[in-house]
Amino acid sequence: METAAIAGGDRATLVRSPLARLPDRALRYGLTALAALILALIVYFFIRLVGEARPAFAKEGVFGFVFGNDWNVSAEHFGALPLLVGTLITSALALLIGVPVAVATAIYATELCPLRMRAPLTVLVELLAAVPSVVYGLWGIFFLAPKLQGAEQWVADRLSFIPFIGGGAVTIPNLFVTGLVLAIMILPIVSAISREVMATVPSDHKEAALGLGATRWEMIRTAVLPYCRSGIVGGAMLGLGRAIGETIAVTILIGDAPQLGGHLFGQGYSLAASIANEFGEAQGLHRSALFAAALVLFVLTLLVNGVARVFVLRAAKPGSSKSAGGAAQAADMADVAVGA
Length: 340
Known about the structure:
Blueprint: E1 3-8, E2 11-16, H1 22-60, H2 62-67, E3 71-72, E4 77-78, H3 81-112, H4 115-127, H5 133-158, H6 175-198, H7 203-211, H8 216-227, H9 229-245, H10 248-254, H11 271-278, H12 285-339
Helix pairs in contact: 1-12, 3-6, 3-9, 4-6, 5-6, 5-10, 6-9, 6-10, 7-8, 7-12, 8-12, 9-12, 10-11, 11-12
């Protein structure tokens, strides 16, 4: 490395020559160009989708397309609200079912599991991410759905007084099985993120809680979960984005019923499923409507990412101060107890 000595006061300062700084500048400019390229690619996708979807928006209107309730290909009426509602219902079910199981799995793997079983358990959970989505879809439609049909009908009959959940006959495929399979599909990523965040909890936080007489569950509830709140929220939102964008498994499991007014154990439709099912035969206005559905899905994914960022920041601010303050208070109390 070429250096030049420059006298400054009582000592000489080593300054790198411009030629020696060239790799640093190249790396910085290269990484900046790659980051700008990613942003440009996103903008290009958006502009291209808007251009392809313009005929559908011109006929139905933007709000008419997004909030219309009539997806009728033969009559060339395209209202994407049933597709949007089906996407949101299945994704919400995936979150409600998958996130608690994923967080519980992460807690067990980091705090309760024996050391010799921790690595095999982690590998087994992460292997769920290696299963192709078409395998999940086929397993769900040919094995899981028939096994659950009786239980679903029992729930629908007993809860007939609750709108959307009770009443009606259980069909195969249906929305509930779709959400259940999506919950299994997002479990590895949510569990992995939660587990990595829980592994960063300082040991003195947990030791302070245990030293004050807290049980293992109380230690997890007061020391671990508040510290990991922002990471768990971020993992859940990432899982939500995964569930919203899933295509093949949802296409197999959700059915082909683009209409509102159904129930949880009936067929539905989603944005991704409509594109996968209909794009091969689409022409003219129908093709433009599918591009408009893709644009709605694209914007929905961006909104989910933005909301996830806001939730993570809001969870991190009080969580970090609260957990740090709580840990400091617990440590002070422990010092007082030891001194007494």
